[in-house]
Structure prediction request, 540 residues.
Amino acid sequence: MKKNITINLCGRLFQIDEDAYKLLQHYIESLRSSFGRQEGGDEIVDDIEARIAELFDELRQRGVEAITIDHVKEIITRIGEPEQLTGEEGERPGHIGWQSFVDNMRSRTSGKRLYRNPNDKMVAGVLSGIAAYTGTDPTIWRLATVVLTLCYGAGFLMYLVLAIVLPEAKTPEQKLQMMAREVTPQNLADVVVDKDRQPERRPTLLRLTVSFLLKLGFGLFIALAVLVGIALCIGFLCALVALVMIFTGTMPNFEESGVPDIYRQNPLAVVLFGISLFMLMLIPIYAIIHMILSLTGKTQPMGIWQRIVWIALWIAALCCLVPCTIAMSETANEQHKREINEKYSYQGVPMSASDKHYLQQGGWTLLKHENCGRRYTSENEYYTGDRNMRYLDAFNDECMEIYQAERKEAVAPGRYRLTCVARAQGRGVFIYALSGESEKHLKEIPAYGNKGGDIFEQALLTDSLATGPEAERMRQTAAANHGKGYGWCQIVIDDIVVSQPDSIAYGVSTDEPFTGQPCASQWFSACDFRLEKVEKPRKK
Prediction:
């Protein structure tokens, strides 16, 4: 339901719903904004409001009790949008503006050819040539190139390509074509006379700004080089100290770092990694120190071949460091996987920590564990609704799980009973018990699925007036799964006979060779196994 509002429009009261009122208010505000710039605009808006009131009156006379948003839309369509009333259609974005830009660029480049400008170049004259071709300031293009260079070197790459592709305006004819001047004897003479004369330009604010930015960038580069050199020196010294401590055996926690294990498994990679790392740090340190000494005049600058040799050695060290790092990382990953498998595995079976803890605490052995998706226990659907209780569990969409979990208990001679709580989605899942003298006992889990179950049915019959822990647990069971039950049933195996001290093995299995029946259940759960002695064995 929408709330209706009573409004006063031109001295008349109307009922209007909230959405319609918001639209009407926005429309009137748009009118005042559009006509506010015109002389007598307020009077025009007042007239439009009066017209709206008249149209509202017509609706009321036709039996409309409350104005809706559809009525307001219809009225706005009849009166017109503010832009239509004021005659401000506005140019379509991306049409006239773009056409104007294209026409402007066409007029600037008409009759010109693109060359590199040798008379106003800073490197190769590419940007100056583009500026002459487009009739713009070259500073703009230089600034744009600097910005693009910061974007992963895109500006530098584009400049290099254009410097190779574009020809230089060497002849007077080419220079005239670059400036869109006619090739006449007088113009040719002007170019020949002025070929060595550079036009004087007053530095503009933009040119001064770009020059300042370039100087600032160069200064930052020098400062960064000094900081990198200092960091490399510190790193080199630290690496040297660490190397000495490793060889003398005084480095603390070195065994825990994992490096000794990696060295034992792949010593060549560790040795080459150390040598390459030292070369990568030592060569730049030497180059920076040599550059500083050459700038102060204390030594001669490096020759070209000397520079090539040091660069080649540094690249070789880098090419050696990368594969060594990869090899060491793979060795460390394998070692880490082994540690994880040891931490998150039980009896050689990889599993989660919660699965391992449950099986380990319960003394369970996984005899079969195929097609279980590395899931051997679960929680959240315990029959009392306690979401923190875990239980044996397996799942496979295609009913192909082969699962058998077993544990043994040492027992004295006697007759025993095995009880547990279990559920299954289909047939073929069995609770079993084995002793040294009795036959194999199998009890199939009823296939209730995830609803009902005899424990749930029993819980529904619990006296509502009963008190005590057991009655409270049964009430929780009746309320589990929103009062639908989780399909749990109590399984009982009697007559497990032991005539001398021995052990009884029991558990849950879906293995067809063991149970004699194929598994047709996508999942099952089992818990609360309890083995109890009921009486002494009968005498033969």
User: Anything to note?
Assistant: The longest helix spans residues 205-248. The mean pLDDT is 78. The CA atoms of residues 33 and 225 lie 58 Å apart. The chain has 18 helices and 14 strands.
